[in-house]
Amino acid sequence: MLQTFKLEADMEMVRGNVIGLNSLWNNRTEDRPFHTLGASAYLDIRRGDTDSYYTAVQACNGALAYCFGSLYQEISSVLTDHLKMKVFFDPSLALPGFHIFFGHEAFVREGGLWHMDMGHIQLGLPDIDPISFTVTVCLPKDGGGLNYKQDDKENYLAYEVGGMVLHDGCMMHKIASLNSYQEDDERITMQGHGVNINGEYVLFW
C-alpha cells in the first residue's frame, strides 16, 4: 500500500545542491537526459558484479552525506516514527541518491519500465519487509508521478514537491510518462530502499 508524508526540508536548496554536484552525475542513457547522483544497485550491479556499485559508493557517499545530511535525518525520523523501528544507514552501502531528468519528448512517449524493486536481493541483503521511498525535489511544469498496479488495475499517483511516497517495492510500478514537456523541465527525486535486519531498518540505494 502506498503511503505519503510531507517533509519540511527546503527542496529548492536540495535541488541547488543536486545541480551543484553535477560533476558526480552518471549519465544513464545516450538518447535522452537521464542522470543519477549516487550509486544505485539496480543500475550499477550487472550479472552479480558489484565492483561498479561499490566504486560509486566510495566516490559519492561523502558528498551526499555532507550536502543532504539534514534531509537524511528527517527521512530517518519520519520512517522511525512510522515503522516503530530504528532506522540507520550502513556506510558500506550507497546512501539514497537522486534520479535527474530534464525536458525531452521521449518522456512524453514513454515513462519508466514496469518493475519491482530488487536492490536488496542484488546486494545480498535479507528479503524481509522491504520498503522503497521517493522524495520529490522538483517536477516538470506539467507535473509528474508514479504508475502502479493494484488488483490488476493500473493506477496513477501524482507527486508533490516536498512529499515522500512509501511502499513495499513489491508491487509493479514505474515512472509515469508526461502529458507534455518543455525543454527547461526538471524532474528530480531522491530514491531509497530499506530492509529489516534483526529488527532495525537499514536504508540504501
Characteristics:
205 residues, three-stranded antiparallel sheet, globular, alpha+beta, nine-stranded mixed sheet, 5 helices
Task: Explain what you see.
The protein is an alpha+beta fold and 205 residues long. The protein has five helices and twelve strands. Strands 1, 2, 3, 4, 5, 6, 9, 11 and 12 form a nine-stranded mixed β-sheet that branches. A three-stranded antiparallel β-sheet has the order 8-7-10, with no helix packed on it. The longest helix is centred in the first third of the chain and has 33 residues, at 51-83. The mean pLDDT is 96.
Q: How many strand elements?
A: 12
Tell the overall outline: globular
**SS-derived structural category:** alpha+beta
Outline the biggest β-sheet. Answer: 9 strands, mixed
> With helices defined by DSSP (H or I, 4 residues minimum), what is the helix count?
5
Show unreliable segments.
Answer: none
Element-level helix/strand string = EHEEHHEEHHEEEEEEE
| Average pLDDT | 96
| Assembly state | single chain
N-to-C span? 20 Å
From the alpha carbons, calculate the radius of gyration and give it in angstroms. Answer: 16 Å
The percent range for helix content is 25-40%
Assess the beta-strand content as a share of residues.
25-35%
